[in-house]
Description:
Blueprint (H helix, E strand, L loop, with lengths): L1 E3 L3 E2 L11 E7 L3 H10 L16 E4 H9 L3 E2 L2 H20 L1
Parallel strand pairs: 1-5
Antiparallel strand pairs: 1-3, 2-3, 3-4
Amino acid sequence: MICVDQLFARRPPWRRGLRGHSCHLYSTERAEELVRFALDMELPTRWLQHSRTMPHYDLSAGLRAKALRLGARSVGRHEFVAHLRAWRARSAHATAR
């Protein structure tokens, strides 16, 4: 399932650089599913973030709206954290094999 969490402030107003709001686009299942969805959104593949958490894209408010129009599911902060913990658990289990 492809999900987007809620928009949050990128940087405090007193810091320089990119400002505004962003969110995460991610898959609850597989990175390949996420990449296919991102290609449908015409996102550059270099935007994919392979972090210590789960693979994701950071999206602006406009791109979040586009993701929702294309079928992504909107989730709240608690559900996002639950998905993140499940992803980490699966990753830890896979590397322990």
